[in-house]
Structures are given as C-alpha cells and as structure tokens.
Amino acid sequence: MKGPRFEQWEQREAGVLGTLPFVLLAICLAVSFLIGEADTNAPLWVLSVVSVATAAWMLWWTVLHRDWRERPRLMVVYFAGLIPLMAALVIIAPWYGFFTFTGYFAVVLLPERVWPVGVALVALVTATSQNGGLPAGSAGSIVIYALIVIVNVGVASAIMFFAYVGEQGHQRRAQLVEELEATLRENEALQEQLVARAREDGVVDERQRMARELHDTLAQGLAGIITQLEAAEQARDDGDWRRHVDAARDLARESLTAARRSVHAMRPEPLEDARLADALASEARRWSELQGVRADVTTTGETRPLPPDVEVTLLRAAQEALANVAKHASAERVGLTLSYMDDVVTLDVRDDGVGFHVNGYGEGHDDGGFGLLGMRQRVGLIHGTLAIESEPGGGTAISVSVPT
Hints:
The protein is of the alpha+beta class. Among the domains are: 4-134, no CATH class; 275-404, Histidine kinase-like ATPase, C-terminal domain (Heat Shock Protein 90), CATH 3.30.565.10. The protein is 67% helix and 9% strand. It has helices spanning 4-35, 44-64, 72-92, 97-100, 103-107, 115-130, 139-233, 238-263, 276-291, 308-329, 371-381; strands at 294-300, 333-340, 344-351, 385-390, 396-403. A five-stranded mixed sheet has the order 1-2-3-5-4, covered by helices on one side. The protein is rod-shaped. The chain starts with a helix and ends with a strand.
C-alpha cells in the first residue's frame, strides 16, 4: 500500500513535471534577450510571439483543461500542435533545445501505439537544436544531422522503454494492492459473518446444553419424586409411607443441587471426587434402591482418567438409560458394562424389560420427551456414537461409544 510520504512525493513529482516546461521556456526566452538578435534566426519579437504561443498552447491543454490529460486521443491533437511550435523555436534559437526535451513528457500522454512516432518527432526537434539548426546542403552535414537524430531516437526510446516497463510494473503493483484490499475487505465481512454465526451457534448450543441438563436433573428428579409420592399414596402402613416420602425429599434435594451445578456448567456431583466407574456404581446402587430393580455394574479393561466431557457424557447416558428403564421397561434386572479399550470407551446398558420397536424411535422424538434425543446430541458433540437394540418382549440394549 502507498504510504503518506510516497503519495506526497508523487504529488510533488507531478507538480514539478507540470511546471518544468514553463520554467525552461521562460529561461530560454530570457537568454534570448540577454544574447540579443545577433545569434537568432529571426527578430526577438517573433521569438517572443512563438514562445508566448507555445506557453499558451500548453497552458490551455494541460493546465486549464487538466482532465484532458487523461484522454489520449485529445492529446494527439495537443502533441500535433506542440511539435511545430517547438520546431520553430529551435530553428530560430537553438538553445531552446533545453526546453524541447520536455516534449517527452507529452509523449506519455499519447496512445501507446503512437509512442514511437512521438519519440521520433521529439528526438528530431532536439537533434535540430543540438545541430545548431537545420543541416546545410552538404552531404557531411546531413550525415552528421542524421547521426544526431539516430542517437537521440535510440537514447530516448531506451529511456521511454524502461519508463514504460516501470510504469507497467507500478500499475500491476497498484492493481495487486487494490485486489488485496478488496480481499481484506471481503475477509473482514466474512469474519464478521463468522463471528455473528458463532455467536448464534453459541446461543443455540447453550440452549441445548441447558435443555439437556434440565432434563437430566429436574425432569428426571421430578419424575422420581412423582413416582415416590404416588407410591406413598398407595402405602399400607406408616413405614412404607415414610420411606417413600423420605425418598421423594432426598430426590428433591439432589435435583436442586444438580440443577444449580448445571446452571453453572459444573461437573455432576458423582464425578467430583470419584472416577467414572465408581460414579456409575454409586448411581446404579442408588437407582436400584429407589426403584427396587437389580442393577449390576461391570468394568472391563484398564481403568484410566478420561477427559471431563467424556465422563460427563457417559454418566448422563447411564442416568438417562436407567430413567427410561424405570419409566418404560418394567424390567427385573439391568446390567451396565463400562469397557476401556485402546482409544475408545464404551458404555452398554441392557435390561430384560418389555422392549419396543426401534425404527423411528429416538431419532427426533422420545414420546414427546427429550431423553434419547438429548443423549444423541451429547454423544455427537464429542464425536461418539449411540446405538439402540430392542424388540418387543426382548429387552433393550443401549450402547454408547466415545473416542478418548
């Protein structure tokens, strides 16, 4: 990108190049008056008129109508009038060659296809000044004049060529800078979109997390409390009634504690001071005492610490599976197997209950609830898989496999 100093330098350069022809023209006219008419080929008033006409021509085309400089076809007209004026000046006073070389500044304003013609014409005028005027009629003077013209054309062409190459390189760099700036603007817009999308996704993820946590804590806890209170209503003696009421009270306290931990995104309490296998055993034991259904926990492989999100996902899956057994299975026995393998940990929960038809179940609904859907979402977030096998009268098996 152009820096402020570079832009200031470009502006100064343009100002100098625009002013230089007028300054040199004025100097040449002043020199003419100092030298006098003896060394000129016409009266000073004629030289003055031609000089003023040249200045007026340049002023009209390049200063008063500065925008014409960006129109190459109009500049052909300007150049066609400038060359005869320059030629007249160097024929009258050869020292005007100091001024005529500024004609190369006008060449770059022409269409590129006529640059060679413009360079040749300016070189011819400049060679005339260097030769002291037009050549005499002798062959020698004509040869010398031709050599001067050739040298001027060669040098000027080389200079113009390198200037052209430099200008093309400058334009390419400017184009690349513009493209880079456009790309950066597009990237900024994309970044803003990504940030907005990430914010929206974060809100959705947080809502889903809260929905899963509320289901795993409050919903399951409330369901358990209702079950215990219904059992208390049907109790035949005070001992059974008290046992169910105490169980309902304990479930309420546990659910409240779990809900608070969920809101603050803390690990479930069973995992605070125990490994996953121990937490599963404790959870199964508590559930078995509450539901009156036998629950066995088996661990295979070498136990090892797991990432917190993996442990939470497997514990929540076990809790959801046990809750579903209590609500739907009418099972007499449940088995939980935690298997540690090289790079995968698997949790299998099997019951001997009534079973159900698996097709379409739990993909997007759970009898109006959030259980299996929330379980799938949890497992999917850590790139795990959930498999369900069941048939009416044949029990149910849920398998959760998570990479470690």
